[in-house]
Amino acid sequence: MHATHRSPRHADPRRERGAVIIAVALFLFLMLGFLAVGVEVGRWYLVRAELSKSVDAGALEGARNITNPYADPKAIARDFAYANFSNAYLGTSGSGVGAVGFDVTSPTSTQILVTGHTTAENIFAQVLNVGPVAVASAGAAVKRPTQIMLVLDRSGSMSGQPIADLKVAAKGFLNYFAPTQDKDKVGLISFSTAVKLDRALGNNFVTPMTTAINAMSAGGWTNSEDAILQVSRTGGLPDQSGTPVEDQAFQQVVFFSDGVPTAFRGNFERGGVVTDAVVAISDCPGSVQNPAMNPITGNNISGYNVTPTGDGVSSIKCGSSPTAPSVYWMAFNTYPVPGYSPTSGCIPNATLNTHMCNMIHAMALDNADALKKRGVVIYTIGLGDCDKTFMANLASTPDKFYYAPNSSDLQAIFQQVAQQIQLRLVQ
Length: 427
Hints:
Blueprint: H1 13-64, H2 73-84, E1 101-105, E2 111-120, E3 133-142, E4 146-153, H3 161-176, E5 185-191, E6 195-202, H4 206-214, H5 224-230, E7 250-257, E8 263-270, E9 273-280, E10 315-316, E11 324-325, E12 327-329, H6 349-373, E13 377-383, H7 388-394, E14 401-404, H8 410-419, E15 424-426
Parallel strand pairs: 4-5, 4-7, 7-13, 13-14
Antiparallel strand pairs: 1-2, 2-3, 3-15, 5-6, 8-9, 8-12, 10-11
Helix pairs in contact: 1-2, 3-4, 3-8, 5-6
């Protein structure tokens, strides 16, 4: 009996090739789909990020104008949002229901809320039948409680039209904040030889400060350093260093002057008695003026000359001058005269005059720096022959110094400063 042998069956190569092609095609299709989704997801995130920037920009600009009596803050917010994200931007829908849109509300009198929505059209992900994706974002900005001290120069060079134009500009500045004077606080310091707290920092300020501004009259020296120091005293801006950041008010100083510092306030010892007084210099370079002046009234202190310098106790004779009680300038402890001790006697006039010019500038700048370290923002407005370098250095940053060639320019410049009130964005 013979066994029957069968030949082995061989696979059809054509059928195997077809199966491989189908598998590869399916794999490529899936890979293309995943790649498409990956690309689209990245674009979705980009669309949302740009939409978020737009609603934030709109909310912030709207809140900047929330106290502007000449503008609609909600309209401004909407316009800014659209300016940053227009129809069809980044491949979003250009029209119809899916086009970009911004809704603006004002939940409170100090807040602007912007909500944006659009539709991200898919390009590659359509191969997986993925349709358009809705994207939305919201942003809010709130006007922080604001505390502002106006510090205004009423020295002799402001007489006539300059002081009249200053009054108009300052009152216009107040009106900008009138709608929120129940929340914001504003105070007024005016200065010449003497520094006066015309109105302590407080709410409901428009009427009393208008009265105080109208009552200002020009005359005397320019005591800039003591005016800036007054901002930190009672009635000025409170120190917020121990207050949580989220509870702090936004503090600002608006400092105006038309000239250069010509006076300072300090303690002087003569005959063993210490006197609080103001000393002036005629010009820089110039000559130190006698007698000293009362820091409250600005009047001369009869017979109280501040030269010759010395230890404040001994009588002293300088050259051919008669014997006279020496005067100890206590400011020299902090701002020493180069080459002399604080109690040096008979400092030459030329040296004393030069030093005082430098010292009164340095004192004002140091007082301003102390405010800046507390987070206070300082704006400066200079008029006419002011020392522009000094005023720019006094400001928090050089761009916060504004210059008015003529007093007729003051109203517009004070309005610009009012519009620069900074706001904190709240997400």
